[in-house]
Amino acid sequence: MTTGGVLRRRPTQRRSQERVERMLDECAQLLDEAGYAALTTKEVARRAEVPIGTFYQFFTDKQSLVRALALRNLEAYLDRIASRLTAAPLSDWTDAVDLVVDEFVRMKRTTPGFGVVDFGEVLAAPGGPALPGTQRMLDEALENNVVVADRLRSLVVESLGVAPGDDLSRAFVVAVEAADAVLKLAFRAHPEGDPDLIAECKRLVRRYLSDHLA
Amino acid sequence: MTTGGVLRRRPTQRRSQERVERMLDECAQLLDEAGYAALTTKEVARRAEVPIGTFYQFFTDKQSLVRALALRNLEAYLDRIASRLTAAPLSDWTDAVDLVVDEFVRMKRTTPGFGVVDFGEVLAAPGGPALPGTQRMLDEALENNVVVADRLRSLVVESLGVAPGDDLSRAFVVAVEAADAVLKLAFRAHPEGDPDLIAECKRLVRRYLSDHLA
DNA sequence: CGCTAATATGAGCAGAACTCATGTTAGTCC
DNA sequence: GGACTAACATGAGTTCTGCTCATATTAGCG
Which nucleotide is closest to A65, CA to C1'? Predict the structure, then answer.
């Protein structure tokens, strides 16, 4: 796990590494139980059996905690996609859509706190939405979904051997953003993910990408 | 303005009505300035020149404030769509996509706090995401985007005279959810809304809906 | 003019995020 | 072993936010 610049200090000793991991686990649990608004640093610390001071040794912030969790989930997701692609390469690009969506659904069902992967507001740069003159760029990779889109694109392109067009990058970003939204809706509508909405999500993405990949 | 069951008590006298309106205005301003996390009830009250006690006379909650604002924006949006449709009926359903998206962009540019129209987490039922056994249903209309989708569908169907299929309802929900996500991305990428992403949003929706409306 | 419901007000309470001064351990070089 | 440094541990305390509530004032109406 890389957990980029998310932590205040990276734990080097075994015990503190375990503690950080435990805090992330409990954070995920609490997010699934009561949502972000009800998430409490004290409760996370209490459940992880860690004093509150230790929490703030490693996380600068409540957001920092959630961001670190999102990053961990995101990497787990991409790793699974990558390994499934190398295990069984694709014959058709439409299979890639199924694979990517199904894996999302699978992780959402099994991985606590997986719903936080996007979480635009929280994960974006601090200070809230675009202060005047700030103009956050796409390629600054502040957006989680943009990162996912980029990795997915390279994985799929590699596995299929397509010519990497320029606008393919943007197309993937759009597709990921849209699919993410529809899948989240599917899980808001039904705890296990509304099957019809999941199917529609695939149809949406296939329809949209067919121009670029057919 | 209807502001459903959002308020703790509906203001009947002129002065309090103005005060509630002023609080919503300042809320919108603050949301655009610093985002939801930095939003403070005290600051809203201070700017609206209303004591904090008065704030809680009308709003049960900080969320209640934001929900009321979202509702106000949402109704303004739908009203504009409706009046534009009656002013100049559509010849082609693809025009409806342009109209709906362009109007969204226009309002996002001009109306403070318009970004809050969806705001899944915040607007959803209190208690965070689906507690075990709760299973929030789509047709409970807790989802703002579902309301928007339904209204848009009836408006477009009416203006075009299409046969209202059963799955058209779900298709509109999916389209609205996806379009909303992509448009928000467009505004995160560029303060005025990235034109390429706006164009892609239209393409996405047209592609997806063509099965249902062609 | 009196009566009721609506409105007004801000000190104060509960609790959350986060700090910091002080103590303890792990690793390393001699 | 001992000495030294950097990583880690700790929880009482500070600050600030959401929100309440007892009490005072006003609007509308017969």
Answer: C17
Transcribe B35-73 into DSSP letters: -STT--HHHHHHHTT--HHHHHHH-SSHHHHHHHHHHHH
CB contacts < 8 A (A, B):
125
Q: Do B121 and A207 touch (CB under 8 A)?
A: no
Contact A143 B185 (CB under 8 A): yes
Cβ pair B66, B48 in contact under 8 A: no
> Does residue A99 have a pLDDT over 80?
yes
With a threshold of 0.85, does the pTM exceed it?
A: yes
Alpha-carbon A108 to chain mean position? 10
Determine which of B207, B209, B210, B213 to mutate to test the interface with A (most A C-beta atoms within 10 Å): B207
Phi, psi of A32 (to 5 degrees): -70, -30
DSSP for residue A125: P
Residues in contact with B179: Cβ distance below 8 Å, sequence separation at least 6, in sequence order = A178, B100, B101, B104, B201, B204, B205
> In angstroms, what separates the C-alpha of B48 from chain A's closest C-alpha?
22
- Which residues on chain A are in Cβ contact (under 8 Å) with B129? 32, 35, 115, 188
Per-block mean pLDDT, blocks of 10 residues, chain B (214 long):
70 93 96 91 97 96 92 94 92 94 97 78 42 36 81 90 81 96 93 97 97 83
**B185 CB-near residues (< 8 Å, 6+ apart):** A143, A145, A173, A174, A177, B194, B197
A39: the nucleotide nearest its CA (via C1') is C16
| From A143, A177, A182, residue closest to B174, measured CB to CB | A182
Q: At a CB cut-off of 8 Å and minimum separation 6, what does A63 contact? A: A122, A123, A126
Q: Is residue A142 a contact partner of residue A157, using CB atoms and an 8 Å limit?
A: no
Nearest 5°: phi and psi at B88?
-140, 95
Helix, strand, coil percent values for chain A (each to nearest 5): 70, 0, 30
Q: Find all residues with CB under 8 Å of A24, minimum gap 6, and list them.
A: A65, A68, A69, A72
Decide if A52 contacts A38 (C-beta within 8 A). Answer: no
